[in-house]
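Record pair follows.
FIRST:
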Amino acid sequence: MECCEIETVLRNLPTTKNIFRGCFVSDKLLLARRVLCRDQDNIFIVLIVGEEDYFLGHFILLYLSADNILTVFDSVAKKYPKINNFLQYLRPKLIRRNVQKIQGANSCVCGIYCILVAVYLSIGLGLTHIIDWFSKTYLKTNDESVYLWFTKRIAKHFVTRRQQLLMCQI
């Protein structure tokens, strides 16, 4: 999944469209600062980390709630030192991160995990509750489950039939 596809979905879903601010490559976080003005109670952004490439990187989700708690979701549960200054810039009173890896090693569904977590955080579920839905050991099953969730509940509203067929070949 590419950043533009994540943006299309999160900008158009009823629960996320008013609070999603965009996708940003981690080395361009100064641009993200401008869009994070607090004119909304809650804010979502997706960061591309790892590869410094708009198309090849790994996606993580940041959610800053109205009570100034920052939730950092990463489907492979890594920490990225390059974004620490940005996280401190947001001045959250608390930072929550998932510590459980839920995505398989050779998987490319990190963007779909970000969409799923954004949807459920936006309706008030906690990150721990969402992570508990997934297996700690059967990561391939997690990837298949999140992909199935996306195709059945989300993708049919945003992608063409041709794109759906191409996605099934993955």
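SECOND:
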Amino acid sequence: MFKEMKPIKKIIILSTLLIFISFGIIGGCGSNPPPAAVFFTDIPSQQLSAYYDLRDRSSYIQVTNVAPKPVAIHVQIFQNDKNCDELDFNDNLTPNDTVIYNLDDIKRNDGSEVPVNLNDDSNGYVVITIDSDSQLTIDQFSREGIIGNFRIIDSAGYEYRANLAAQGFIPHEDTFQIPMIANFNTASGANLADVIGYTYVQNARSESSTFSLADTVTNFDEGVDFDIFVYDMEEDPLSCDRLNFSCGSVMNYGINEDYKASRGDDLLCPGGSLADPKGGFISFENGKFGTFDEFSGDDDDEFEVPTFVGLIGINNGNGTGSIDYWFIAGDEFIAEDPNEL
């Protein structure tokens, strides 16, 4: 059932900057970044994550240790095509060491084979976490940790490339619950989309300025729900149903009939077309996690951290494409009850 349309005025300011400086094929975040956000893509972190896709695509994940000490890492792969079943392995990086994982043929940093076999039609997400035994200085003043990027090469010749989503080390108490914006356009003949979202949960501990994560995360089966609104460049709206992003169900959507899914048939706005399909933006509103236990131990300093990552890729199916983040957030930035917004 379609929803009653909401006024455009409250979100147009957020989207104007990136929408009107777009060039080439572009898909990305059009809202201001959250103040003192706890998630980044360009600083070292204790934990990284990435989307991958092997459906007539190749996926590569690069990880670099920028710490002055060796680190052990735990790599977890969650397979959307297999009800989000997990495969995992461990690896080691010396200082300033870089490893590239080809998800069609995964090898450890020392060249040894990893007993992990993904289907040719597999897609999902990967989380890389530094083992707590690595004894790094993980706090807001540190630049120790890992950093990286991912690369998805489509059989049609275009690529998606971006830095890995990285969790920062600064616990954050404030809320950030305004709509998130992703923009898109038809430059270079773009008419296909990958609107991606995945969610995982981990145990964490906060002591003074230190924020430490457990070595292992779990998929968050319920995912995240959003109200979806799509606007063209003339601000003409297209209302869509409330949708869920979750691994094991649907974590990759097309936008509408003008920008169909690169893979699969799921659309944010099935049956809907924009009055002016040359471009526009998507507003993701009233984000809500499912049920989770906020505190995971006897001590209030131990808690669960549900983490959602959203990306948007736009391509023309014939050699040109781009991808960017529209949301990287923890539970501080998504309302548990949309009525509280």
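COMMENT: Residues 195 and 312 are 4 Å apart (CA to CA).
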